[in-house]
Amino acid sequence: MDVYIEGIENLTPTRMGKYAMTPRMLLKMPSYGLESGECSPNRKPRSAQMPIWMPFTKQIWPYIPTHLTRLELDLFWPGISSEPQPNDVFPPEYLAPLTSLRQLRVLKIVGMLDSYQKYIWQTAWLCPYLEEVALEMALEPVVRSIVNKKWPTIKGSWQMKDASMAKLAYIGDGGKGTLRYELGCGEYLDLITMGEAQKLAMEKGLVSELFTIRKLSLTGFVVDAHPFKRWFDPERLQELNFKNDCIDAGFVLSSPMRERVRITFPSKSVFQSTSATVVNAGTAKIVRTKWRATAFSELKKAIEIIRKE
Questions:
Q1: When you count CB atoms within 10 A of the terminal residue's CB, does the N or C end of the chain come out lower?
Q2: Distances (CA, A) of 157 to 187, 211, 235
Q3: Which residues of the chain have a pLDDT value below 50?
């Protein structure tokens, strides 16, 4: 793959035709027939199973083959877009082309600042071989004091409640994939969103009655019993991985799932505090963080690997 990199010291993205792609994106992206900065229809991908980990921009979709089996997107670190969005939050519609994929086995989307469940679950319904889904919000959910003590964070000494203790009231905001406002603010694993997505998927292709997912990983979600009781297959679901900042709002599994599903969660909070110095008004200082230095170091290594290919 021929890659031209310009202005690396200033983190200027690599150019591929009229689209912009970062070195991080190109590092893990298989060669999809890129020649002299353009796509060649006469060349085929080396492997549809190779992961694509991409900072997101809607211009990437023409370069993603529909037969891809693994896709990983990062919505927090955007690529260069010709249409910058307010606050760098992508409209949910930017993920609509995701539903054109039919052979995904692994789907991972991280860095989400908005709810994209409408298109994520449509894709899940339309991919009959999908086994692993990982969804990560960029911000943790915040719940109001009236439910704060009733809804524990899934970490440390947390234990799943008995099925008889589960409250079955719907707490979402009408299928938007978010928590109802009077209860808090954050992403909610939404039963109604999944059902509406199934109806939309039926207009595009064949769908099953239940998800085929075997492993589900969540970060920054409010979860209850509804989606697992209605939409997940107890004969297929094998693992639930609650990562950081997931909140139990009545999460339980049915008896068949309890016996089969492995549940993992953080043993303790992974939050790390950072000290700061108060600066008087009118004074400006440049702050360099350790993670930024590490990012620069990793980027340089990625560039060297790309140049050798």
A1: C
A2: 23, 30, 28
A3: 1-47, 49-50, 80-81, 270-279, 283-296, 299-300, 303, 306-307, 309
